[in-house]
Write a structure and sequence with these properties.
This protein is 42% helix and 15% strand. It contains 2 helices and 2 strands; from the N terminus they run ααββ. Strands 1-2 form a two-stranded antiparallel sheet. The longest helix is centred in the middle third of the chain and has 21 residues. The radius of gyration is 17 Å and the shape is elongated. The relative contact order is 0.13.
Amino acid sequence: MNHKPPVDIQALFEEGTQIDAALADAVRDALIMHKRMGYPVAAWRDGRAVWIPPEEIVVDDPPARE
């Protein structure tokens, strides 16, 4: 049985930290996947959309979690 207290979704959206962290993790995972598979990614640079080749994709280290 699950004995966790219910999550206050409204509070999560208002605070935003956990959502921001989840989005950052998802982007990092997608960049890693594209780089490993040899696929380019689209990005916005100098006011226009560009393709970044897999060999130029930079993946930052994940932030330390408390």
